[in-house]
Amino acid sequence: MIDVKNLIFEYPTKRVLHDIDCVIEKGSITALVGPNGAGKTTLIRCIVGLHAPYSGQVFFDGDDVHEHPRECHRRMAYLSDVFGVYDQLSVRQCLSYTARAYGVVSIKIQSVVEAAAERLGLTDRLHEKSGALSRGLRQRLAIAQAIVHEPEFLVLDEPASGLDPEARHSLSQLLVNLRGGGMTLLVSSHILAELEGYCTDMLIMRDGRIIDSRALKGAASRARRLRLDMAQPTADLNTLLEAQAGVSQVVVDGNVASFLFEGDLSARHGLLKNLIEDGVAIAGLSEDRVALQDAYIAQIHEYDSTPKDAGQ
Amino acid sequence: MRGNPEFIRNLWQEFSLHRLIMMPAVVGILFLLIYLIHDSTLDGWTAKWAILIYFVIVYFRGTRVASESVVQEINGKTWDTQRMSSVGPWSMAWAKLFGSTIYAWYGGLICLGLYWMSYIEIIPDNRIFKLVLIYIVCGVIAHATGLLVSMLAIQKRRDFGRLQITFYQIVGLMAAVPGLYILLFGIADDETYKVLVWYDTVFPLIDFMVVTLLVYAVWALVGIWRLMRAELQMVNGPWVWLLFVVFSVGVSTGVRFLHPDIAPAMPAISLKAATGYVILVILTYIILLNPRGPSCFAGCDGM
């Protein structure tokens, strides 16, 4: 859906993006991660056509975003990390205004406004002034405004910042639902454990470069990293695990083993049964929630330890 | 107008029932006091007070809100949403200009009604009409200039305080000088000697002002439209700017003020050259202030 080619962006005194190439697949939720100052927001703003790059191109379903920004904007939406809503307007007016501004025909305004409010749990707040809403509700309103015209591609920059745990969970559910409805999402965030819950792909940025791009799950990759806790260490566990169907990338550390496993719940049950029969003292099996963070940190360290060209 | 979402949003924001009632109440009470102080008579004195209130509401307050209209979207973090919307540059331009100032115009039109009432027995209707038109067009030009300068500024920076907005407001107010001139020098009262020569043709000053102000109001709108195009990622070519420079030089170099029974005080050619030179210098300076100005020559496909 999105194809970024040789993208370079410069501020008057500094090059911020260095020859970026990346692809965002249709129907995916792609996490854009990286340390502060890596260039995530600049890349996002170039992708949605709000920043004109020094060179390079961004294609949205084959259309050059910077050649035809208006056409592309009708089908995409962007929510900045620091967003604003019109405080004097009611929630209904905010949504109605955005729907009109994004070209929704008059006859459909009411239905799309109510659908967006329903999705974000704002139905009972439609008559409240947006200035009177809490931070979490304002965030929901901002997301509702972003999706009210039902874009095909939604870009969220740090959407979970400032939200309480319950609101973050709701946000994760919403993003999964939006993807289920056919939307493609690009989400920039620092909260890697939460991204892992719903992202299918990951782009890692450092110093204005994409240093890693990988599929996490979804159609392309169904493998999940599992964590096996044991009551006591097992001799030759590495070999034992690698002999099991669907298991790869085994790492054993004392009483804990971590590995990638491709298979459904019954396959997972079969794996456990085999391991118990082989005498492994299993104390627990869970999805490894820190896998994304591990991958991220490993990539960052690898990049940092790689010698850089003097000119870069 | 009904379909412009940006204008509708401004209407929602500017007009509440409370504000709808407040403006006529305040203006009405003020004018009533002036009328009573002036022995319950309507004449040039009450007309000047009506226009003074108009100045405060439309020129001062209106120019302020027009100068803030885009800047506040940037400060309020709503500008990106607007830039990505389907609202075109022309719709966005006029909706910002007239939508943000709609409440000031609401008060201003009440004042102009009172002004007309005060002069109705004193000067002919067509003359009052021309004066009212000048005041309105000066208001539009002041608002448009404030908005124009603020839009030039957002190409360089994206954070704004009150001081910057005040500067844009002052620049806008300078464009309202013709209206102020009428108030201070009484063009309404005596026009015997108020004529000018434009390329050897004598025009009544008031007619010349009406026409040139209307034309410059259109140019100001064109300027906002083009800056809005740039904000909406569209490419502007240099031709409209060049046309404006040529037009401004053409208009200004043809103008001479003189009394009809006195010979021209100074040779027209030197006045033409001086005026043309000054205007060219000012306009060139303004285009140099605009970081996208020189680069616009690269994109000659757009107007």
How would the blueprint of this fold be written?
The complex is a heterodimer of chains A (312) and B (303).
Chain A: E1 2-11, E2 14-24, E3 29-33, H1 40-47, E4 55-60, E5 63-64, H2 69-73, E6 76-79, H3 91-101, H4 106-119, H5 135-147, E7 153-157, H6 165-180, E8 184-188, H7 192-198, E9 201-206, E10 209-215, E11 224-230, H8 237-242, E12 247-253, E13 256-261, H9 265-277, E14 282-287, H10 291-305
Parallel strand pairs in A: 3-8, 3-9, 6-7, 7-8
Antiparallel strand pairs in A: 1-2, 1-4, 4-5, 9-10, 11-13, 11-14, 12-13
Chain B: H1 5-14, H2 17-37, H3 44-75, H4 79-83, H5 89-100, H6 102-119, H7 125-153, H8 162-174, H9 177-185, E1 195-198, E2 201-204, H10 205-231, H11 239-253, E3 255-257, H12 268-289
Antiparallel strand pairs in B: 1-2, 1-3
Helix pairs in contact in B: 1-5, 2-3, 2-6, 3-5, 3-6, 3-7, 3-8, 5-10, 7-8, 7-9, 7-10, 11-12
Can you walk me through this structure?
The complex is a heterodimer of chains A (312) and B (303). By secondary structure, chain A is α/β, with parallel strands linked by helices. Chain A folds into two domains: 2-215, P-loop containing nucleotide triphosphate hydrolases (Rossmann fold, 3-Layer(aba) Sandwich), CATH 3.40.50; 224-292, Alpha-Beta Plaits. Chain A contains ten helices and 14 strands. In chain A, the strands form three sheets. A six-stranded mixed β-sheet of chain A has the order 6-7-8-3-9-10, with helices on both faces. In chain A, helix 3 packs across helix 4 (106-119). Chain A is globular and about 70 Å long. Chain A starts with a strand and ends in a 7-residue tail after the last helix. The model of chain A has no long low-confidence stretch (mean pLDDT 86). Chain B has a domain at 5-186. In chain B, strand 1 (195-198) and strand 2 (201-204) form a beta hairpin. Chain B has a three-stranded antiparallel β-sheet with strand order 2-1-3. Chain B has helices at residues 5-14, 17-37, 44-75, 79-83, 89-100, 102-119, 125-153, 162-174, 177-185, 205-231, 239-253, 268-289; strands at 195-198, 201-204, 255-257. In chain B, helix 2 packs parallel to helix 6. Chain B is flat. By secondary structure, chain B is mainly α. The chains are: A alpha/beta (312), B mainly alpha (303). At the A-B interface, helix 2, strand 6 and helix 3 of A face helix 1 and helix 4 of B.
